[in-house]
């Protein structure tokens, strides 16, 4: 399986990191080894001093495809969850300054956390999907699919021009404003609407 991530998909988040708002989806990948296994412990990585959370809606790809038109893209995912695209922000800042790839900041073991998968219903797809992240029971991030620059279908159309999508691939669809640091001992809980899809502690 592959893990795709969309960068700068919410205007307010692009602004808070002083990035340009992109004209087409910004795509990067994490390897399979980045996925934190369900129930596994999350450990604060030793190579960073600035671990950031990015709460995101995550799509589960349910059909193989390439060159998928935007009008057909809805047939290629059937579950959704909330996840965290963990980022070593200090490492990323150094890499960005030098114009180097992001993987050391974004693609390390355990950097992709996902919650419980929820089956998508037509009703859910016809309304904005709200999601949020609480740390130690305090709301730190909230977003809605309606605020995304590029929709789920546009993202799938774009990715599939370059990469074959396979059943089981995940797409992190970008984070809204409000990213920030977390430290050892923090308890992170992700919600889709009012439903809690994950909760874990930073060890
Ligand atoms: Zn992200």
What does it look like?
The protein has 203 residues and is an alpha+beta fold. The chain has one domain (3-39, 48-201): Fumarylacetoacetate hydrolase, domain 2 (Alpha-Beta Complex), CATH 3.90.850. It is 16% helix and 33% strand. The strands form three sheets. Strands 1, 2, 4, 5, 7, 8 and 11 form a seven-stranded mixed beta sheet that branches. The chain has a four-stranded antiparallel beta sheet with strand order 10-9-13-14, with no helix packed on it. It has a three-stranded antiparallel beta sheet with strand order 6-3-12. It is globular, with a radius of gyration of 16 Å. The model has no long low-confidence stretch (mean pLDDT 96). The structure holds zinc ion.
List keywords for this structure.
alpha+beta, Fumarylacetoacetate hydrolase, domain 2, four-stranded antiparallel beta sheet, 5 helices, about 15% helix, globular, binds zinc ion
Per-chain topology:
Elements: E1 3-7, H1 11-16, E2 26-30, E3 51-53, E4 55-61, E5 77-85, E6 87-88, H2 89-98, H3 103-106, E7 112-114, E8 118-119, H4 122-125, E9 130-135, E10 138-144, H5 152-159, E11 170-172, E12 180-181, E13 187-192, E14 195-201
Parallel strand pairs: 1-11
Antiparallel strand pairs: 1-2, 3-6, 3-12, 4-5, 4-11, 5-7, 5-8, 9-10, 9-13, 13-14
The chain binds zinc ion.
Series of H and E elements: EHEEEEEHHEEHEEHEEEE
Biggest sheet details:
7 strands, mixed
What class would the helix/strand composition place it in? alpha+beta
> Can you tell me the CATH class?
Alpha Beta
CATH-defined architecture: Alpha-Beta Complex
**Per DSSP, what share of the residues sits in E-state strands of 2 or more residues?**
25-35%
Measured on Cα atoms, how large is the radius of gyration? 16 Å
- Please tell me the overall pLDDT: 96
